[in-house]
Specification:
The chain is mostly beta strands and about 160 residues long. The chain is built from no helices and eleven strands. The protein is about 0% helix and about 35% strand. The radius of gyration is 16 Å and the shape is globular. The chain starts with a strand and ends in a 14-residue tail after the last strand.
């Protein structure tokens, strides 16, 4: 099937729990998945915390593996819900790292197409980080001048 993923930020506040969308027919029809999975925890007092989905990355070597990066819906990109993952095409989700970047806003995710055990996460204000090859090994990517080039294409 032709699976397409899309993220959403609901500025109206009417459907904040519908931030992840999936099409299994190449974009002809869409469904919101899976409800309010990402809206966990509380912001202040009893006010629920809401996130918007800022970036999506699909593992090119592991069928069904999808990553998302979340930022705070209150427009504070330094806050966020970290990196989440699904191994079943977005049906169920779990937080990828409960320690490292769990409270940071994730602005971009890239799965290395050659070595999918390496995941790169750009954050708002804390730089670029690399997970892997051990899934919970988190390393800062040093900022040394301008980064040139792109990842090589998988064979």
């Amino acid at each position: 099937p032709k699976i397409i993923y899309a993220g959403n930020r609901d500025f109206s506040g009417l459907s904040r729990n519908k931030i992840f969308w999936r099409s299994t027919d190449g974009g002809r029809t869409w469904s919101s998945l899976p409800g309010d999975t990402f809206n966990v925890g509380y912001f202040k007092r009893d006010l629920p915390r809401y996130y918007c989905l800022n970036t999506i990355a699909v593992d090119p070597r592991t069928p069904g593996r999808v990553y998302v990066g979340l930022v705070d819906d209150g427009r504070d990109y330094t806050m966020g819900g970290g990196v989440w993952y699904s191994d079943d095409y977005g049906e169920t989700w779990d937080i990828f790292d409960r320690e490292g970047l769990a409270c940071f806003g994730i602005t971009r995710l890239i799965v290395d197409p050659v070595d999918s055990s390496r995941i790169y996460a750009a954050t708002a204000g804390t730089g670029i980080w690399r997970y892997g090859p051990d899934p919970l090994q988190l390393t800062a990517v040093p900022a040394r001048g301008t980064v040139r080039g792109t990842f090589p294409r998988p064979p």
